[in-house]
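User:
I study polymers; will you set down one protein's sequence and backbone structure tokens?

Assistant:
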Amino acid sequence: MGMMRPGRCVPLFRGSPAILSAGVLILVTAGAARAEDGRPGSTVQLEELSVESTGAARGIVPAYPGGQVAQGGRVGLLGNTEAKKSPFSITSYTDTFVRDRQARTVSEALSRDPSVRATQTTGAPFDSFSIRGFPSGEGTSGEIAFDGIYGVAPSFRVFTDYAERIEVLKGPSAALSGVSPNGAVGGVVNVVPKRAGEDLTRVTLDYGSVATGGGQLDVARRFGPGREWGARVVGSLHGGDTPFARQSETTGVGALALDYQGDRFRGWLYLLAQNDRFDAPLRPFQLRAGVPVPRAPDGRLNLTQSWEYSDIDDRGALLRMEYDLTDAVTLFADAGGAQTEVQRYFQSAPTILNARGDTTSTPQFYAMGIARSTVDGGARARFDTGAIHHALVVQASTYNEDTARQFPAGRGAYLSNIYAPRLAAYIPPPITAGRPRLSDSTLSGVSVADTLSALDEHVLLTVGVRRQRVEAHNYLANVGTLSSAYDKSATTPVVGLVIRPWDAVSLYANSIEGLSRGDVAPLAASNAGAILAPYVAHQIEAGVKLDLGRIGATFSAFRITRPNGEANPVTRSFAQTGEQRISGLEFSVYGEITPELRVLGGLSLLDGVLTRTATAANLGHVPVGVPDVQLNLGAEWDLPGLPGLTVDGAVIYTGRQFIDVANTQALPDWARLDLGLRYATVIDGRRTTFRANVLNATGTRYWTGVASFGTFFQGGPRTYLLSMSVDL
């Protein structure tokens, strides 16, 4: 364990005593939703819900046969929609899938999605992604939605303890989900929280290499004459030494939730908190210009010193309400928010100096507070005009975020090597007083969307529009005086079409836009402080979805074009002169080949091009961090003659990725093999499941994905995971 240093005083849990219970925050989960596990022998079920876009939009979509993915998911303000009736590409991973993989974070759970790649590794104190070749989650504003709402989930790492579904809505979605806080346009990741269905008391104990262990308690109950009241408790504690040298981690997660399901009124309250501590957290690397990418080191090695640390404390709450004004009209309102406290002291991204792997690093102290709040409201209505059925949604929303930060200049640079990390003497952090204001922003908008259906939902047309306003103030770092102000607006439309010539076949197409806040010209620019207009990304997509009852598949083709700001190399003026385009083909398959053999996998082929740039030599180059191939092949098999025993395996492949726009430095392609084994049985009348997983079973040494600013991580080493869960 690392040494406790001055200024480090983040407790395991913070918050009101009303939120804390026995050191475990309790998540109150709501909704009388039922979702079948989908696998033979499964007994735990939740109440089944309609997946119509204007129905009980807060429920969960039932699982598809095989139990690994759901039959649909949330499509922004359209609510829960069956995949075969949606003009967008969406994948929803079930709690069963997450538990069987022993995935502790959303990033780990999405490792088998062919459209998604993590741009960090498991030993880092944050999660970030690439979705359809575009970055997500790279800033300090959390970009993972919680029950469809931004500003509630933790900002850096989101744990799976409280997730019933983890959904990925692929492509831009400003008209459906609003502006993503960091401006992501490749897709939206949404966590659907666990809700009280059938009574449940589940205890899970787990252990992972090198010496990390812990446990989870998951309890659900419903009360009242009609079981209209519900509660669910989810809490976990984990700690110990990780597979990375000198690194230890301690995490606590928990929540309390209450819900009420009346005849016309429904209400949900979620309270959520987690604490995530690292000693010697992994940091991304950057590469000096002109230096070739060295071969990846052993994944167990760690350049971070034992006295460097990261402490992150998150608390969040969300209140949701619905009232059926009539059988055809539902009013809804949501209010929530979150607070993130960050205190860390570790090296800046180590710079690799040469092909031998020598590095230089400078420790920096960093203290930040992020306060977020969100409010929305609107109405859903169903009505007919002749033979056309309408599902109309109107929504207004506001998201606010305030950030304060202390970030003094680092000192005490030290040298090391990626193949032979060196220990450095403790360097005291230069802590200063106070935490000056850094930024504040308000994202507000009004949306309206209508899904028109005819011929018994064999033809569905979705049209919508959102008027979005982005207001922001930026303050001088470590000073807190106003440096720039921002107030821009944009209108983003959406059109989607589904034609189902047969019940098992859906042809779909969409045209939709994404919206990102325009950059502020940096101090080095000749027009420093100038604010660019919002970036508008545009996607067109078309594809076919198959649902054969036990096996499903999707094939799609898309093109996303997004502008970006850049500095002119001659005039040094910063302007929206850059643009990149990513075209892609995606194929996914899921479900049961036989009741004993289940598959989940897919392929993404990406063609990224810089279509506009101020540096003529870079025109036509591949954007940073966009591989040409992403392949996932996974299957699980119930062994014949051995009831309850299942083997699981997956191959994950990622093609070459450039780390610079000049396309002179590239990470090589890599492939990883994950294996698993589980045994489900009944012991003393209690359902018990044993799980064993090996990540990176072959011990492949590789570099992971590339962030948009050109940093990258080493891949994780061979990692062993064991767990036992018992339903009491």
Remarks:
- Residues 518 and 533 are 5 Å apart (CA to CA).
- Helices lie at 95-101, 106-109, 174-177.
